[in-house]
Phosphoglycerate mutase (Alexandrium monilatum), 297 residues
Amino acid sequence: QATSGRPPPIPSIPRTQTPPPALMGGADELELVRAAFGGAQVVDAEQLVQILTTVAPGKLTEESARRLLEASGQATEGPVHVDDFLRWLFAEAAGQASAGAATEVFFCRHGETDWNLSHKLQGLTDIPLNDAGREQAGCIAEALGPKKLAAVWTSPLMRARDTGAAIAQAAGVELQVDERLRERNLGVMEGRTGKEIEAEFPHVWEAWKSLQELPPEGKAEPEPEVIARVEAALFDLAAAHPGRAVAVVAHGAVLRCLCRKTFGNASISTLRVGPGRSWKPVQLDDGSHLKTPGLKV
C-alpha cells in the first residue's frame, strides 16, 4: 500500500492516559534513546523534542513529539526531567515496572569524616560525618531529588547512616538500615594512615594501592565475602523495588571490592541491578553534584 512517506499524526492524549502502546519499541530501544541524551538528567523541552525526532524519524515529527511531551505531564517549555519522560513514553516496553524489570541503584559513598581528612582508613571504626560531610550529604540528596526514589538503604555505620538520612528525608521515604552494607573490616590498616601502613605492613599497602586482594597478614575481611554480602543486599533491594529508582549508602572499600577502582567521598555510582541476580555499572564515581571533589581515602 502506497504512503505519503510521512508518519501518521498522533492524536491528542489526555495527561491521565498512558502513551500509545505501539509508539516506541522495547527495552533495547529505550536504552538507545536514553543514550542519545548523553547522560543528561535534565534538558530543555525544545532540546528533548529535537533529540526524539532524530532518534525516531519514522515515528515522530516535531509536532507529535511536543504533543507527547504535553501528554506526559511535563512542561512544554523550560527544563524537562529526561528519565521521568522516558519512563512514561516506554511504559509498555518496561512492562510498567513489572517483576522482570531492572532496578536503577544510585550507590553513594558516605560524606567526609575527620578521619578521611586525616587520611586514616576507617574500616569498621564508627566515625561520624564532619561539617563538610554533612554538606556533601545535602548535595547528594539534592542531586537525587528528581529521581523519585522508592527506597533508601544504608550501612549501619554513622557516617553512612547520617548521609542516608539526608537522602531519605529529601525523598520522603523511610531509611532502611542493612547490616550487609557495612564497611569492610580493614584489619591492620584500620586507624592508620597510608604512610604508617607502608612503614609497618609494606606488602599490605602495596596490595591496597594496586587494588589487589590483601595478603593474610592484613587480617582484613576477605574480598569475596564482602562482595557476596553486598550483592545479596543489592539483589534483595532490586527484588523489592523492580523497575524503580533506589539509593544505597555505603563505603569506599566496599565499592573497591565491587568495582576494582577508588571512589571519592559523597560520589554517586549508578548501577542497573536485575533482572535476576545480576548487575552492571552504568556510571561510576560521579562527583559532579559536589562543590569540590570528594576525598579518595
Observations:
- The radius of gyration is 22 Å.
- The chain has two domains: 27-97, 103-186+221-286.
- The domain at 103-186+221-286 is CATH 3.40.50.1240 (Rossmann fold).
